[in-house]
Model the fold of this input.
Amino acid sequence: MTSPGSAARIRDAIERHGRVAFSRAGGPGGQNVNAVSTQVEVRMPIARIPVGTRQRDLIRSRLATRVAADDALRVTARRERHQARNRTRAIDRMVELIIGAITEDPRRRATRPGAGVQRRRRAERERLSRKKSARRRPPADDD
Done:
């Protein structure tokens, strides 16, 4: 599980060790898009993320499509018209992705079906049985 302070630790590590690059976003937006580098790419070396080795392996496997060849987690943001907002968005998204990847799935407890479920199943089986037996030919009488 992740503690409430782990998001702050991860965010702090991204701010300190992450590499931020800016480029032109492209797409609609007029002169702002053509003139200002608003797209933000944040790259964070997985080795610098403040988690254990098991959790780093989970990040590598669960976020494999976002891990670059240099073993860095990569996130881009380009929706906003302002570079600072896109930077904040990218960092927020990276924190969410990391926390989502290191959160262990709860173990499933095997349970038995309840009495109501069993009753409904039995009733449905009996209904189908009656329907199918009505399709059969009646037995021939040997008088």
In short: The mean pLDDT is 89.
